[in-house]
Design goal:
Number of strands of chain A: 10
Shape of chain A: elongated
Largest sheet of chain B: none
Radius of gyration of chain A: 29 Å
Number of strands of chain B: 0
Structural class of chain A: alpha+beta
CATH superfamily of chain B: Cytochrome c oxidase-like, subunit I domain
Structural class of chain B: mainly alpha
Helix content of chain B: 55-70%
Number of domains of chain B: 1
Order of helices and strands of chain B: HHHHHHHHHHHHHHHH
Radius of gyration of chain B: 23 Å
CATH topology of chain B: Cytochrome C Oxidase, Chain A
Cofactor (chain A): Cu cation
Order of helices and strands of chain A: HHHEEEHEEEEEEEHHHHHHH
CATH superfamily of the largest domain in chain A: Cupredoxins -  blue copper proteins
CATH architecture of the largest domain in chain A: Sandwich
Pfam families (chain A): COX2, COX2_TM, Cytochrome_CBB3
Number of helices of chain A: 11
Helix content of chain A: 40-55%
CATH topology of the largest domain in chain A: Immunoglobulin-like
Distance between the termini of chain A: 84 Å
Keywords (chain A): Copper, Electron transport, Heme, Iron, Membrane, Metal-binding, Respiratory chain, Signal, Translocase, Transmembrane, Transmembrane helix, Transport
CATH class of the largest domain in chain A: Mainly Beta
Function (chain A): Subunits I and II form the functional core of the enzyme complex. Electrons originating in cytochrome c are transferred via heme a and Cu(A) to the binuclear center formed by heme a3 and Cu(B).
Number of helices of chain B: 16
Oligomer: heterodimer
Family (chain A): Belongs to the cytochrome c oxidase subunit 2 family.
CATH architecture of chain B: Up-down Bundle
Strand content of chain B: under 5%
CATH class of chain B: Mainly Alpha
Distance between the termini of chain B: 16 Å
Number of domains of chain A: 3
Chain lengths: ~375, ~525
């Protein structure tokens, strides 16, 4: 028996060990790092305690009845079935509690809606399935894609610390400044959420929504898309780096310079190999989630490119659909999402990868001219 | 008892038909009620098995069992099947069985339409479920099917989904018309409106809600159909349409729909709590007014599902205040139930166990509803697992426990046998523990930041997801026990008296158990 007991304990401990070691029993909302998120947290805690108090009273009476007023104890039932005073009271008192609750909620809401006098304006556009951040005042923009490797998702590799909550290019904002976000979407509705900021707003095609934040503590903050937006809805995280102002200014200068370099790349003479190399990367971030890394797609919504008539023959049609999209389908217009270089590289890649060996290439200049003709 | 004597005299000519035609062609409210209940239980198992797929995938982080595309189809179909296939038909089944018995009517007012509205349902669900086998898969845009994900970006099977929703809508509207016609025209002499049993009252109000909002649902899916096939742009911004319009129209249907799924349960619970407390229901009149108030308010709160879409602040405040107001009549109902129990003579057979759990757990769902109504806080809760926890707390221990309580309460009347009390109590306790284990940790997950409708999650959510999945499997498997209990009860067991519960009140207990095929051919007199 003893041996069995010891074995059972050892087994139970073995089974529980990974759980207790990894355990993360976060049960409550985080107060966050902005005044908005702190106000929301205090509203949340207030209403929670009100509910707990009401619950204690109501369930207290109920459990008292359950224990004391049992038939099995020979308790004889009373026969009352109305009492105007009590009934009026339990209508009025909850009403008063609700009014008391509505007042601070209203104040907080009014503050959350005040998007005036911002220091930095950033336009956020939701795409299936990544975010684009556009620094309106500084004339540069970039995409932010999830950077968690497929192998981690497919359980072929150990999961990293920030599994699913890491991106290639985080949004960078200055600490202590009022940052205004203008949100919209390119395809379906997305929703941009950073729990630590207390900011969540839907990004809706055809609409521009506004919200704002002022972060006081430097750091990296993580959130996710919270509106179902298709198959990779679970894989479009939001990562924001809040940095001191000097650091922010340096970063902005770098980004502007990089954008300028990128523009100059269009002029360069590209070889097929260079375009293929760049195209493979661009394809992986912009195209592979629908058309798949091996070009076989997910028909019927996402057709195969491998061996397709368009990728093998119809070059004009190929350029057109990549630049302008196909209205009424999931195929987006990539003309404004990718640079001329990336557009040329992707089209070249699609015409030469996976055995599509056409040997044809499209140069950035051709794309530039094509866009200007329109 | 003259009603019963008549039935015996006529049984030879008017008994049930033999074979399949009894079920295909029946106009008998009891047969149709049984068919609705059996159909809804089949859908409950189907929708539940999809929930098992969801919970199995979410047992661990990473993708292991299904692909994200199929995961989305599962969440969508689970929601649609549970709402339209399990909960709503179950209440229509209870209405069919019990309304005529409770008001002393021989049948429903429109028996042929009754048959038709039932048989539409299997057709609708055959179409809906068949989409799983179509190219491109089943609908994958969530049971709320927000445009443009469901229009421009929807799978080809969306058209079949729209057709299925239309058929369900027709069925529900016909069912509702039948309920209203029956209650308003066929009550026994002397049964004034304020003497009606609460289940009758709550169903009358529910039926009006159905008639008001099912056409709105039909309208919104028709607009989708036009956008998909006929070149309109109701919800397509690039054609001058408005994706947010979809949400306004959908939730104008969707919020009253929530009360459609809970009000009949309120009625049934009121009977059960009073019966097992052996004491009259406290505050009958205020119960009726509270249900009426909830129904009216349910039309004024739809946009609290949309606090993050960027409404003007005035709209935001209006919908917050209106939503908070609903807590008042809902509170009145809970207080009345508790006061009914207070100083009663309580016993805890299976219907009472489910009813007491209903009151406690539905109230917890109400509390989280109150929290969600606070608009600023909703910016944190919205579209997280906190919302999933909230609506499962009002729907599982609310609607579903209400249906189980009703089933155990009236099973002796339907079958003529007592069910196995020990097994039924086992069913209750396993369901109770499983359900709380499955859904309570979801509150924590939501507050810690886990969005809903994701097939994979960050590592900090692992532990609670594991617990939740274990609870869900436990709850799911337990429901097979319910099937066993009902079959066992239908096939035999201790004979049930006409009134098997000593505290029960109402006309349904004046007819023998099982209730004869025809009852109240001559209306009873209500004093």
């Amino acid at each position: 028996m003893r041996v069995h007991a010891k074995r059972a304990v050892a087994l139970a401990a073995g089974l529980l060990l990974p759980v207790t070691v990894m355990a993360n029993w976060t049960m409550n909302m985080s107060p966050g790092v902005t005044s908005t998120s702190n106000q929301i947290y205090s509203l949340h805690m207030t209403i929670l305690w009100i509910c707990v108090a009401i619950g204690v009273v109501v369930f207290g009476v109920m459990f008292w009845s359950i224990f004391a007023h049992r038939k099995s104890r020979g308790f004889k039932p009373a026969n009352f079935h109305e009492n105007t005073v009590v009934e009026v009271l339990w209508t009025i008192v909850p009403l008063a509690i609700l009014v008391a609750m509505a007042i601070p909620a209203t104040t907080t809401l009014i503050e959350m809606y005040d998007t005036t006098e911002s220091d930095v304006d950033i336009k956020i556009t939701g795409y299936q399935w990544r975010w684009q951040y556009e620094y309106i005042d500084d004339d540069f923009s970039f995409f932010s894609n999830m950077s968690t490797p497929k192998d981690q998702i497919r359980n072929r590799q150990a999961k990293g610390e920030n599994y699913l909550l890491e991106v290639d290019n985080p949004l960078v904002i200055p600490v202590g400044k009022k940052v205004r976000f203008l949100l919209t979407a390119n395809d379906v509705i997305h929703s941009w959420w950073v729990p630590e900021f207390g900011v969540k707003k839907d990004a809706i095609p055809g609409f521009i929504n506004e919200t704002w934040t002022r972060v006081d503590v430097p750091g990296t903050y993580r959130g996710q898309c919270t509106e179902l937006c298709g198959k990779d809805h679970g894989f479009m995280p939001v990562v924001v780096k809040a940095v001191p102002e000097e650091e922010y200014n340096v970063w902005v200068a770098e980004q502007k310079e990089a954008a300028e370099t990128e523009r100059r790349l269009t002029e360069k003479d590209w070889t097929l190999e260079e375009l293929m190399e760049r195209g493979e990367q661009a394809y992986a971030t912009a195209c592979a989630s629908c058309h798949q890394a091996d070009g076989t797609g997910l028909p019927p919504a996402f057709p195969a490119l491998k061996g397709s008539q368009m990728a093998l023959e119809d070059m004009a049609g190929h350029i057109e659909i990549v630049v302008n999209g196909s209205p009424g389908t999931a195929m987006q217009a990539f003309g404004n999402q990718l640079s001329e270089v990336d557009l040329a590289a992707v089209i070249t890649y699609e015409r030469n990868a996976w055995g599509n060996n056409t040997g044809e290439m499209v140069t950035p200049k051709e794309i530039f001219d094509y866009k200007n003709q329109q | 008892m003259s009603a019963v004597a008549d039935t015996h005299a006529q049984e030879h000519h008017h008994g049930p038909a033999k074979g399949i035609s009894r079920w295909l062609l029946t106009t008998n409210h009891k047969d149709i009620g049984s068919m609705y209940l059996m159909f809804s239980f089949a859908m409950f198992l189907l929708g539940g098995s999809m929930a098992m797929v969801i919970r199995a995938e979410l047992f661990q982080p990473g993708l292991q069992i299904v692909e994200p595309e199929f995961f989305n189809q599962m969440t969508t179909m689970h929601g649609l099947i549970m709402v339209f296939g399990a909960v709503m038909p179950a209440f229509v089944g209870l209405a069919n069985w019990m309304l005529p018995l409770m008001i002393g009517a021989p049948d429903m007012a429109l028996p042929r339409m009754n048959n038709w509205s039932f048989w539409l349902l299997p057709c609708a669900f055959l179409i809906l479920v068949s989409t799983l086998f179509m190219q491109g898969g089943a609908p994958n845009f969530g049971w709320t099917f927000y445009a443009p994900l469901s229009t421009t970006y929807g799978p080809p099977s969306t058209t079949f989904f729209i057709f299925a929703v239309h058929i369900m809508g027709v069925s529900s509207i016909m069912g509702a018309i039948n309920v209203i016609a029956t209650i308003l025209n066929m009550r026994a002499p002397g049964m004034t409106l304020m003497k009606m049993p609460l289940f009758v009252w709550t169903w009358l109000i529910t039926a009006f809600l159905l008639i008001a909002v099912m056409p709105v649902l039909a309208g919104v899916v028709t607009m989708m159909l036009m956008d998909i096939h006929f070149g309109t742009s109701f919800f397509d911004a690039s054609g001058g349409g408005d994706p947010v319009l979809f949400q306004h129209v959908f939730w104008f249907f969707g919020h009253p729909e929530v009360y459609i799924m809970i009000l009949p349960a309120f009625g049934a619970i009121s009977h059960i709590v009073a019966a097992f407390s052996r004491k009259p229901l406290f505050g009958y009149a205020s119960m009726v007014y509270a249900v009426g108030a909830i129904a009216v308010l349910s039309f004024l709160v739809w946009a609290h599902h949309m606090f993050t879409v960027g409404m003007p602040i005035a709209g935001q405040l209006f919908f917050m205040y209106a939503t908070l107001l609903i807590a008042v009549p809902t509170g009145v109902k809970v207080f009345n139930w508790v006061t009914t129990m207070f100083r009663g003579s309580l016993s805890f057979e299976a219907p009472m166990l489910f009813a007491v759990a209903f009151i406690i757990l539905f109230t917890i769902g109400g509390f989280s509803g109150l929290m969600l109504a606070i608009a600023p806080a909703d910016f944190q809760y919205h579209d997280t697992y906190f919302v999933v926890a909230h609506f499962h707390y009002v729907l599982v221990p609310g609607a579903i426990f209400g249906i189980f309580a009703s089933a155990y309460f009236w099973l002796p009347k339907w079958t003529g046998h007592m069910y196995d009390e020990t097994l039924a109590k086992t069913h209750f306790w396993l369901s109770f523990v499983g359900m709380n284990l499955a859904f309570f940790p979801m509150h924590f997950l939501g507050l810690a930041g886990m969005p809903r409708r994701i097939p994979d999650y960050a590592l900090q959510f692992t532990d609670f997801n594991m617990i939740s999945s274990i609870g869900a499997f436990m709850f799911g498997v337990t429901q097979l026990l319910f099937l066993f209990i009902v079959v066992k009860c239908a096939r035999g067991g201790e004979k049930a008296a006409a009134k098997p519960w000593d505290g029960a009140e109402g006309l349904e207990w004046t007819v023998p158990s099982p209730a004869p095929y025809h009852t109240f051919s001559t209306p009873p007199e209500v004093k």
